[in-house]
């Protein structure tokens, strides 16, 4: 009888281990955002968004060259 109880407890522990960790969306967002505007410090996902941001928010400035190439 004790083996059945041990088996159920082991299955429960394994199920808890294999569950995805419940992280916040802010943490995932911080990982995904790689570019940022040096003028207003807005974080953007890629260089195309950075160019679009400069065109709309800083039309007199030229976008800096992105450090990462996609």
UniProtKB/TrEMBL annotation:
Main location: cytoplasm
Name under which the protein is recorded: C2H2-type domain-containing protein
Cellular location(s): Cytoplasm; Nucleus
InterPro entries: MBS1/2-like, SERF-like_N, ZNF706/At2g23090_sf, Znf_C2H2_type
Basic and acidic residues: compositionally biased ranges: 1-19
Limits of the C2H2-type domain: 35-63
SUPFAM superfamilies documented for this protein: Expressed protein At2g23090/F21P24.15
The keyword Nucleus is assigned to this record: yes
Molecular-function GO term, any one: zinc ion binding
Region (Disordered): 1-25, 51-70
The UniProt record lists the keyword Zinc: yes
Keywords: Cytoplasm, Metal-binding, Nucleus, Zinc, Zinc-finger
Any one GO cellular component localisation term in the record: cytoplasm
